[in-house]
Amino acid sequence: MCRNRACARFAIGAKPPAPGETRRRSTRERLYTRLTEGLGEAVDDLTYPVLSGLARTGPCSAADLGREIGLDRTTVTRRADRLETAGLLRCQPDPADGRATLLALTGDGQDMVALSRERLAAGIEDSLSGWPQADAQAFARLLRRFVDERPFAADHDRPLDARTRRPGPAPSRG
């Protein structure tokens, strides 16, 4: 059941909602707030992307993490300081460059990410519980396809093969 105008317009055959309508900052903030509620003062809608990003990337610099999660280095550093004080991440020397520092999740930080992901999965299951099973399965299949294909795929920068519509071979590095 559609609960907003953008969804309703799409359901009756109009063009789909603009990407901006589905990626609003307020939507992300609401989601992150629900995922982090009651997890402690350091974990909130501002610091959650740092935790989640580190869970995806593994140890990395604040600048690299910032590029991953769409924040600048100084913002990442400020938020990481809060998480470090709470014992959820640590700073460690970069083995490849002794002058650089990497951010890494602690065991407690990994536990926080796991808990928030469990909450996310439960929320999705709850949202889909009123859907017919075939619709929920089709949604899951199509969402996986959407994420695996352009523009989100890791090989999104490779040209598509005209016949298969899949990314072509990786360019040679010779």
Short description:
This protein is mainly alpha-helical.
Task: List the main descriptive attributes of the protein structure presented here.
53% helix, mainly alpha, 174 residues, two-stranded antiparallel ribbon
Description:
By secondary structure, the chain is mainly alpha-helical. 53% of the residues lie in helices and 9% in strands. It is globular and about 55 Å long. It starts with a helix and ends in a 26-residue tail after the last helix.
Topology overview:
Elements: H1 5-11, H2 19-22, H3 25-36, H4 48-57, H5 62-69, H6 73-85, E1 89-94, E2 97-105, H7 107-128, H8 133-148
Antiparallel strand pairs: 1-2
Helix pairs in contact: 4-5, 4-7, 5-6
The ordered H/E elements are HHHHHHEEHH
Task: Summarize the main sheet.
Answer: 2 strands, antiparallel
Low-confidence stretches: 1-12
**What spatial form do the alpha-carbon principal axes imply?**
globular
Helix content: 40-55%
Instruction: Tell me the quaternary state.
Output: single chain
| Rg over alpha carbons | 20 Å
**What is the overall number of helices?**
8
How far apart lie the N and C ends?
A: 54 Å
SS class: mainly alpha
Portion in beta strands: 5-15%
Strand order of the largest sheet: 1-2
- Count of distinct strands: 2
Mean pLDDT over the residues:
79
